[in-house]
Amino acid sequence: MDSATSETRTPLGASADNGLKIVVVGGFGAGKTTMVRSVSEIRPLNTEETMTQAGEAVDDLSGVRGKTATTVAFDFGRITLDAHNVLYLFGAPGQERFWFLWDRLFSGTLGAVVLVDTRRIDDSWYAIDRLEKHGTPFIVACNDFGGPTFTPQQIREALDLDPHVPLVNCDARSRESSKIVLITLVEHIQALYADPARAPRQELV
Amino acid sequence: MSRPGRDDSPDRLYTLTGGRSRSGPDNPFDLVTLVVAECDPVPGMQSEHAAILRLTERPTAVVEIAAELKLPVSITRILLSDLQAAGRVSARHPRKAAVPDPDILEQVLVGLRNL
């Protein structure tokens, strides 16, 4: 199984030594995979993690049959930033069961993009609530599906969004637009940590 | 493309890890830990171990290894800690800190703007 896949892989440079994470969270069909694909240097890959009902990732497989195991799949892509830093971009479903695995998978993440389909704004409310509780810096990006347009104020009110959280419009199919979303997020993270009074405190696991 | 592991029974995964199935919270392998092979595969080696050594001739993230092997992340982490304990791979862990290093954030911005 390895020879067929490894021939098509794009390897990292030998000096790469620091992996970084940004998570794109969004409801079904919000365009997470599209955004990852737009900026990734590799074809987006898919993998999964399994957890038991108790919310633990599977450590003791001998006990799995007696418990309810849930599998959460997620996509990811990769951006080589320089000779040392490699950014991994994860597309994560916003549904409730996924958050049991957040710490396990995404502890130490730089931040998150909440990708919103403005035709289904309510899908994003839960993700925003969880990110706030986790202390994960995030921005909100509205993916343009050509539906009815809302004013930024209408969207902020619908999401009950903190005025400090950046809100941008984007086209997830566009590399340039997706790139601007990521830059907006990292600039927001810089600003947050430059102001000790507002700096979030992420718990390290 | 079929999703990894979807049809794997726990029994098969249990066999893959040689019965030692506990990765535990002290397993140091993060999703984005970059793994580098320290040796070539040898005959008789478990096929998953050999596949990992081939994949990691150049630095490769844990999550990429899991995707290529079509194994759940937690199983991949167990295999990797076995290989590391045997000195067959080395790990470049992400620089985790309670507050991101401002220099790293600047490097991320420069890298993104250059895309």
Automatic annotation (TrEMBL), chain A:
CDD domains: Ras_like_GTPase (cd00882). Keywords: GTP-binding, Hydrolase, Nucleotide-binding. The keyword GTP-binding applies. It comes from the Bacteria. It holds the Pfam family ATP_bind_1. SUPFAM superfamilies: P-loop containing nucleoside triphosphate hydrolases. Belongs to the GPN-loop GTPase family. This is ATP/GTP-binding protein. The lineage of its organism: Bacteria, Bacillati, Actinomycetota, Actinomycetes, Kitasatosporales.
TrEMBL record, chain B:
Residues 1-11 have a biased composition (Basic and acidic residues). Residues 1-26 are annotated as: Disordered. It comes from the Bacteria. Pfam families: DUF742 (PF05331). PANTHER family: DUF742 DOMAIN-CONTAINING PROTEIN (PTHR36221). This is DUF742 domain-containing protein. It comes from Streptomyces caelestis.
